[in-house]
Automatic annotation (TrEMBL):
Its EC number is 3.2.1.23. This is Beta-galactosidase. SUPFAM superfamilies: (Trans)glycosidases, Galactose-binding domain-like. Residues 422-545 form the Beta-galactosidase 1-like first all-beta domain. GO terms for molecular function: beta-galactosidase activity; heat shock protein binding; unfolded protein binding.
């Protein structure tokens, strides 16, 4: 492919590098740039050996600990994403403290002697909620709202980016290498080639960066080789680099795709995401990637082209999706949230341990360390001691409070009145659960009735009639309806009314998306909720954001204890529903444990030893320790059965565990604080060689089994065998295979230009618009990046969303409204 030399390059050189050219003036100090297909730091060749670590996935008291471990593995650079949604939770309100203290992270990196590859997004993907975009993008009260087209030239979107980057870059400017800091270069967009090829959009992002950050800093783009020509700009405005995993590509073809985009002499080979492991969704077996291929290909890359190639391990240390930050993928109809652990099967484990404790396989850390030490000839510092991880024993969590009882405490002042239900984001809610309540005349349920939510709930709905569990609907199941039984209706309400409650739990927002159509909003997604075909109007809505449950649920003074015990009594009194106990209903469970100061074990950084909260026997929910949200647990699916509890969260003396169990409590109402992770839950059993049926049944029981039938009505231990059987029906295996297949196709198709051309002629796609065809929009013009977008069903971009009121695109909701700016803070 002939290579175009950007005329700007010449200008840039003439102007001493001050114009839009990508390279800084080489030789001047300090500088970072490119010459003769080599990266030069202050005029000297440098091979970047980088590792991705996300400060937002590591407890801030452990940042130094993790950096020290990474340094000892031999990296010289850290790749840093910045999640917009963590830093700007509400429009114009910024957070820069605790786990969001980006400047402290940069200071620590600099102190460690490491350099930085900065990846400000604004879209970061990263298996992170909404791919890093703020949830308030989905609110019509914010300029643009759902009509805004992210990752495009839409001026509304670019206005938001401009405003955000002005703030972000004002903090980061002093960390540029040219200003004596560690940042070597800055990434523009993120695998944008999967989504589009609008060079003007990329140029606008470049302009914003040049305006707010630096006119000189080297800018780069990252894409898989097959879509690099779409996601970057040919020539010198952007240094095009590629990403791929071990064994995915022949490096010569990958780096040739890179060179085809860069100006001559300006293409040092660079793999900016070299995958050490992989992500895992709930319901899949834990990622367990081949160490052998990783080692082999790492060596190949290190030695590539006379050691002029650079790489970044994605991840060197993955960390944890604490709180509600885990994202999700959507594969056709299937919604696939990520597990809470972001261990990633990376060389440094979630807990900062070496090798892959809990996962197995060869020890990636020491082998990579040896490779790097031999290759660079550097003598590396000794790895810090392994982290201290201890069992703190069994903890009873027998104090309980049904969620329905806690609603007034979690959302005071009564529900928001609404004629029809709307998505969570329209109420300014960020995450958690949302309760939609309406009242029906008693006669509406004289006979069984069909409730239809009008669309899949996002993501998990529990329905109650007069406080009794009527059923559940899961986003990933095709049904949006269920039968309300007449016998559930007690007609106890005012004027014989029946109370209908729909409680919707949000899980992570989709993190891979293009344009508006793919993004994810939460709660009831249709305003057309019907009973026997008749639309239900007149709702009360309770956004339950759950930012501070320990206080809200349990610290209500004298009434608190009474409330808890009354609620607990009620739970036991309420008759069984469908043969199951009412403990199935969502409820908080609370317990305490003591850490004895005299005997407590401490980790290398001086904090109390880490531990794992083992949730065997529980079903699905959210867990907190001392008010710190550890993330989602879902042992009914697995594979993750334990949640990582960083030591700094613990304290000497009394500690508190709170669970919000949304399905079914473990029958002994206890948890175990264990010294090892368990990634071997039900989903992993689908693997060949998994445990026997009898063993599975035993594994489903709580680890610390209480006396059977102690409370009178238990007849089964924890999750029953039926569930284990259901898992075997391979629903989840199908999920896993679908995702694996999808990734295979994705990368096969992007592997080379010729293969891509072949797929472009895919007959099934040509003009048919067939939804089954994953590869096109019905245009016949297959593009790899459109795949997810297309399989969503809403394939064509929304043409007339804004200002006309005439848009038929469901994502615009026909409002055509360009609402004025309204801050959404709660
Ligand atoms: C690699 O480096 C050596 C020594 O600097 C040089 O002789 C050789 O030509 C280089 N090879 C390539 C392919 O650049
Ligand atoms: C991962 O693979 C290794 C073999 O490479 C095996 O020993 C280990 O048990 C596997 N772990 C899991 C969780 O599947
Ligand atoms: C629920 O919807 C499915 C198809 O979407 C339909 O076959 C079924 O009859 C409906 N059930 C009820 C109770 O309306
Ligand atoms: C609402 O849903 C009902 C039943 O599913 C359907 O018959 C009706 O057409 C829908 N109304 C609107 C406005 O979508
Ligand atoms: C695709 O459709 C166009 C127009 O209908 C047709 O001319 C062309 O031959 C088709 N291509 C293939 C590969 O079927």
């Amino acid at each position: 492919m002939p290579r175009a030399i950007a005329p700007l390059l010449l200008l840039a050189l003439l102007a001493g590098g001050a114009a839009a050219g990508a390279a800084t003036a080489v030789g001047a100090s300090p500088s970072f740039g490119i010459k003769d297909d080599q990266l030069l730091l202050d005029g000297k060749p440098i091979q970047v050996i980088s590792g991705s670590m996300h400060y937002f996935r590591i407890h801030p008291d452990l940042w130094e600990d993790r950096l020290a471990r990474a340094v000892a593995m031999g990296i010289n650079t850290v790749e840093v994403y910045t999640p917009w949604n963590m830093h700007e939770p509400y429009p114009g309100q910024y957070v820069w403290s605790g786990i969001a203290d980006l400047e402290r992270w940069m200071d620590l990196i600099q102190k460690s002697g490491l350099k930085v590859l900065l990846r400000p997004g604004p879209y970061i993907c990263a298996e992170w909620d909404n791919g890093g975009f703020p949830h308030w993008f989905a609110s019509s009260k914010v300029a643009g709202g759902r009509t805004m087209r992210m990752r495009t030239n839409d001026p509304l979107y670019l206005d938001h980016v401009d405003r955000w980057w002005a703030v972000l870059f004002s903090k980061l400017r002093r960390y540029l290498h040219e200003n004596g800091g560690p940042i070597l270069m800055v990434q523009i967009e993120n695998e944008y080639g999967f989504c589009g090829e609008d060079k003007e959009y990329l140029r606008r992002l470049i302009d914003i960066t040049r305006t707010h950050l630096s006119s000189d800093v080297l800018l780069f783009s990252t894409d898989p080789p097959g879509v690099a020509s779409r996601g970057s700009i040919m020539g010198d405005e952007l240094y095009t680099v590629v990403d791929f995993g071990p064994g995915w590509f022949d490096p010569s073809s990958a780096f040739a795709a890179q060179a085809a985009m860069n100006a001559p002499g300006k293409s040092p080979p660079f793999c900016s995401e070299f995958y050490t492991g992989w992500l895992t969704h709930w319901g899949e077996a834990m990622a367990n990637t081949s160490s052998e291929v990783l080692f082999k290909d790492t060596q190949v890359l290190l030695e590539w082209a006379n050691s002029t190639a650079s790489l970044s391990f994605y991840m060197i240390h993955g960390g944890t999706n604490f709180g509600f930050w885990a994202g999700a993928n959507v594969d056709g109809e299937r919604y696939l949230p990520h597990i809470t652990s972001y261990d990633y099967d990376a060389p440094i484990s979630e807990a900062g341990d070496y090798c892959q404790p809990g996962i197995g396989g060869d020890c990636k850390y020491y082998v990579l360390r040896d490779l790097i030490a031999k290759h660079t000839g550097r003598s590396l510092p000794e790895p810090p001691p392994r982290p201290a991880i201890r069992s703190y024993g069994k903890v009873d969590v027998k104090e309980s409070l049904p969620l329905m009882e806690a609603v007034p405490a979690l959302f005071s002042g009564g529900g928001i009145r609404a004629e029809v239900p709307d998505i969570m984001e329209e109420y300014g809610q960020r995450w958690g659960l949302i309760l939609y309540r309406t009242r029906l005349l008693a006669k509406a349920l004289e006979k069984d009735g069909a409730l239809d939510l009008g669309g899949a709930p996002h993501d998990y709905a529990t329905v109650f009639v007069d406080g009794e569990l009527a059923g559940r609907l899961d986003r990933s199941e095709p049904a949006t309806n269920l039968t309300l039984r007449a016998r559930h209706a007690q007609g106890k309400g005012k004027g014989n009314q029946i109370q209908l409650d729909i409680l919707v739990e949000a899980m992570g927002r989709q993190n891979f998306g293009c344009d508006t159509g793919n993004w994810d909003w939460k709660g009831l997604t249709s305003q057309n909720v019907t009973l026997n075909g008749k639309r239900l109007r007149g709702w009360e809505v309770f956004p339950l954001q759950l930012d501070d449950v320990s206080d809200l649920a349990y610290a209500s003074g004298q009434s608190g204890a009474a409330l808890v015990s009354a609620a607990r009594r009620r739970m036991l009194e309420v008759p069984a529903v469908g043969g199951k106990r009412n403990a199935d209903a969502p409820a908080f469970f609370r317990g305490t444990f003591e850490v004895d100061a005299a005997t407590a074990v401490r980790g290398p950084s001086g904090h109390l030893a880490d531990t794992y909260l083992a949730l065997h026997g529980w079903s699905k929910g959210i867990a907190w320790v001392n008010g710190f949200n550890l993330g989602w647990y879902w042992p009914r699916l697995g594979p993750q059965m334990t949640l990582y509890v960083p030591g700094p969260v613990l304290r000497e003396g009394a500690n508190e565990v709170v669970l919000l169990e949304v399905e079914r409590a473990a029958h002994d109402e206890a948890v175990l604080l264990d010294d090892k992770p368990d990634f071997w839950g039900p989903a992993a059993w689908l693997r060949p060689g998994g445990p026997s049926a009898a063993r599975r049944q035993a594994l489903l029981r709580p680890r610390a089994l209480g006396p059977r039938g102690a409370s009178g009505s238990f007849d089964e231990g924890g999750l029953d065998y039926k569930l284990a059987k259901e898992l075997e029906t391979a629903t989840w295996d199908v999920r896993r295979q679908a995702v694996t297949k999808h990734l295979e196709l994705l990368y096969q198709a992007s592997q080379s230009q010729s293969e891509r051309n072949k797929v472009e002629q895919c007959e099934c796609c040509n003009g048919s618009g067939e939804k089954e065809c994953a590869w096109c929009h019905g245009t016949g013009a297959m593009t790899v990046g459109d795949m997810l977008y297309c399989s969503e069903g809403g394939c064509s971009p929304c043409p007339v969303c804004r200002g006309t009121g005439a848009c038929k695109c469901e994502h615009c909701r026909g409002t055509g409204r360009r609402a004025s700016w309204l801050p959404l803070a709660p």
